[in-house]
């Protein structure tokens, strides 16, 4: 390891952030673009290393020019068509290899390396590099691999163990080298500790959102997508239900449609329940056809720019979080947005952590996963009791203010990681990042040639 003296207080930090899954548009609401901006706003020289392949669209990203805030580097990755596939494993192994090749070209070397996992091989490669150059190293846990794969795989457990043994080794090596392990939920930090992370050097920073920015967006003029919600409210005595997120096999929109169809049948002479779906994905056409077959008033907006999504969500009266059984997800992006909007949540996700948060803050109603009758009962309770709906909405906003506000949580994270980079915090010290149980420049972008 290179011997390095602590940086002077007034010396600009050199920060490298490595994240496979980032926003295609480099918008600020993405966790890693947000962190890059916050470091850059403090004068740091920041490079965000990500993939040329877009996980959300399954296409290669186009280079976007302009900006001086920080640099985005796209490294080559072959890509894949399905999220759970051998092609994805091969693709992300190639991404980790490309990251390793790029890191050794960086000059001058960084003072801080922050690597998101998954994929675990990236944390391993980045950790080895950081230790070699004497930089502070931080792992940010976004999901738990290989657990997330094994939950949806049809392969026998021994085969899974064999296939994913390298993931376990990469995870253990990455966590062992880390000066800090940050995670987006307590659930994921517990998994990291099980893979070898030192509990004394772990912290939770929820994905969240910047409440100031969220509120400014919510107060803006209505785009056409938000007008669709207002029109739905006019057509229906039912409060408009909102969903924001992906439209893939992990999200049980059929369950929501079935539950609302049950309510419609209970009141055949009344107005039709309305649902606004903000997002896109491989199953959008199937969900649209399913909703049409049920005769419901469902608006699919497609992907919206974040400000438009916020304005649309803010017009809804109830949010829904319909996650399929056995999902490895924990406290998701949509949890922060729903809470920021002050919406009561009807939740079918099995995550014990998120269910406990909804219960503690009185922010929603959890129901049985996959049970349309139970979800319909939850909707009925909130629809028929406006006072309860308001109280749970206030609880939801309180959760956002206490746990999810990036202007507090991300600023604290940048404070601590900056201090870590300047004078290496001794191992075993307790992090202040743990969530209480409780100038914007367009980035420059460069794309590396194939190696």
From TrEMBL:
InterPro entries: Glyco_trans_4-like_N (IPR028098), Glycosyltransferase_grp1 (IPR050194)
Record keyword NAD present: no
SUPFAM superfamilies: UDP-Glycosyltransferase/glycogen phosphorylase
Organism: Brachybacterium aquaticum
tRNA processing listed as a keyword: no
Start and end residues of each Glycosyltransferase subfamily 4-like N-terminal domain: 31-208
GO molecular function, one term: hexosyltransferase activity
Protein name per the record: D-inositol 3-phosphate glycosyltransferase
Gene3D superfamilies, per database record: Glycogen Phosphorylase B (3.40.50.2000)
Region (Disordered): 424-451
Gene Ontology biological process: carbohydrate derivative biosynthetic process
Pfam families: Glyco_trans_1_4 (PF13692), Glyco_trans_4_4 (PF13579)
Keywords, comma-separated and alphabetical: Glycosyltransferase, Transferase
């Amino acid at each position: 390891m290179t011997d390095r003296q602590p940086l002077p207080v007034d010396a600009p930090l050199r920060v490298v952030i490595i994240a496979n899954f980032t926003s295609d548009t480099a918008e600020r609401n993405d966790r890693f673009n947000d962190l890059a901006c916050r470091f850059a706003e403090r004068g740091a020289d920041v490079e965000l290393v990500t993939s040329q392949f877009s996980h959300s669209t399954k296409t290669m990203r186009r280079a976007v020019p302009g900006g001086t805030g920080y640099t985005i580097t796209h490294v080559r990755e072959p890509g894949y068509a399905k999220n759970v596939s051998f092609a994805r494993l091969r693709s992300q192994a190639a991404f980790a290899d490309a990251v390793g090749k790029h890191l050794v070209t960086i000059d001058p070397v960084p003072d801080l390396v922050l690597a998101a996992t998954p994929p675990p091989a990236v944390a391993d490669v980045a950790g080895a590099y950081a230790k070699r150059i004497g930089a502070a190293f931080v792992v940010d846990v976004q999901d738990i691999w290989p657990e997330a794969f094994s939950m949806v795989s049809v392969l026998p457990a021994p085969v899974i163990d064999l296939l994913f043994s390298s993931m376990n080794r990469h995870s253990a090596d990455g966590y062992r080298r880390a000066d800090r392990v940050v995670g987006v939920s307590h659930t994921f930090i517990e998994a990291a500790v099980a893979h070898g992370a030192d509990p004394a050097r772990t912290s939770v920073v929820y994905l969240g959102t910047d409440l100031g920015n969220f509120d400014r967006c919510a107060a803006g003029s209505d785009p056409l997508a938000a007008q669709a919600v207002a029109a739905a409210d006019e057509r229906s005595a039912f409060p408009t239900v909102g969903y924001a997120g992906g439209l893939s096999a992990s999200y049980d929109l059929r369950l929501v449609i079935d539950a609302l169809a049950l309510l419609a049948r209970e009141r055949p002479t009344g107005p039709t329940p309305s649902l606004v779906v903000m997002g896109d994905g491989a199953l959008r056409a199937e969900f649209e056809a399913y909703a049409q077959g049920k005769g419901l008033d469902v608006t699919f907006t497609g992907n919206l720019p974040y400000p438009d999504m916020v304005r649309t969500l803010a017009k809804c009266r109830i949010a829904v979080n319909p996650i399929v059984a056995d999902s490895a997800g924990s406290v998701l992006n949509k949890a922060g947005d729903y809470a920021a909007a002050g919406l009561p949540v009807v939740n079918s996700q099995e995550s014990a952590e998120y269910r406990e948060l909804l219960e503690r803050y009185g922010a929603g109603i959890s129901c049985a996963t996959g049970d349309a009758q139970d979800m319909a009962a939850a909707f009925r309770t909130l629809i028929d009791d406006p006072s309860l709906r308001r109280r749970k909405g206030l609880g939801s906003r309180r959760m956002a203010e206490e746990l999810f506000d990036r202007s507090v949580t991300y600023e604290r994270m940048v404070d601590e990681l900056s201090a870590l980079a300047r004078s290496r915090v001794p191992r075993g010290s307790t992090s202040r990042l743990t969530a209480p149980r409780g100038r914007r420049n367009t980035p420059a972008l460069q794309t590396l040639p194939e190696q």
